[in-house]
Amino acid sequence: MDLKQLRYFVSIAELGSFTRASAHLRITQPALSRQMARLAVEMKVPLLRRDGRNIALTAAGEVLLERARFLLRQAEQTRADVSELAEAPGGQVAIALPPTVSKILLAPLIRAATERYPTVTIRVMEGFDSAQIEDWLTGGRADLGIYYQHKANPKIESRVLLEEELLVIGPPGAKHAKALAATELRRLPLVLPARPHGLRMYLDSLLGMKLHVLVESNALTPLLELVKAGIGYTVLPESAVHEELAQGTLTGFRIARQNLARDIVVGVARDHPRTQAERRIHELVTACIEELHASGTWRARKPGRTSAS
Question: Which candidate, 73, 173, 228, 243, has a CA 20 to 30 Å from the CA of 45?
Answer without folding.
Answer: 73
